[in-house]
Specification:
Layout (H helix, E strand, L loop, with lengths): L10 H19 L5 H20 L18 H15 L4 E4 L12 E4 H19 L4 H39 L5
């Protein structure tokens, strides 16, 4: 019998799982969508994911190595290529909050497609581990998700939102045409 008192079943985690699942499903359908629709939905999803991620309960992990990744390098590369093509000339943006900026004499350029894929990968891997329902694996998955939020995908959300905001209004000003 499952222990529904486990923090993995808290309101914050359940809400995050629902939003993360919806986001991953959306990202997987991006190749079949129009660019304008994609950026408008990302404009809404990214801050929601960031908010829900920031509300996750802190966790400790007594055992590691139980949670498994499900997104392969081939899947990531395929999705990245599809998104990069979808965003086209709007894909690249300058990043000023990149840690490498202090060592660079040239501007640091990031990719919306890459950041969306990075977020997707962390969330999809989390959902894969979380859905097993085993408290030890859920505990590790939540711990890893929190850690990656601080170090990776939370930063990706914060950085890419500015770029998406810009693309939404550039497309609007251009009448949605390239």
């Amino acid at each position: 019998m499952e222990d529904f008192q486990h923090f993995g079943y808290s309101k914050e985690v359940i809400e995050f799982v629902a939003v993360a699942k919806e986001f991953c499903d959306f990202v997987e359908t991006i190749p079949s969508m129009e660019r304008k629709d994609v950026v408008q939905r990302l404009q809404k999803f990214i801050p929601l994911i960031y908010l829900k991620g920031s509300l996750l309960p802190a966790s400790e992990c007594s055992e590691t190595g139980l949670a498994e990744d499900c997104v392969t390098e081939e899947q990531y590369n395929y999705l990245y290529a599809e998104l990069h093509n979808k965003f086209g000339r709007y894909d690249e943006y300058l990043e000023v909050f990149d840690d490498n900026m202090q060592y660079s004499e040239a501007p640091v350029v990031n990719s919306i497609a890459e950041k969306v894929c990075d977020i997707y990968q962390d969330l999809k891997n989390f959902i894969f581990s979380y859905r097993c329902g085993m408290p030890e694996i859920m505990e590790e998955a939540i711990w890893e998700l929190n850690n990656n939020f601080e170090l990776y995908w939370g930063k990706s959300c914060a950085g890419v939102l500015r770029a998406i905001h810009d693309v939404v209004y550039r497309l609007q000003d251009e009448g949605g045409n390239d």
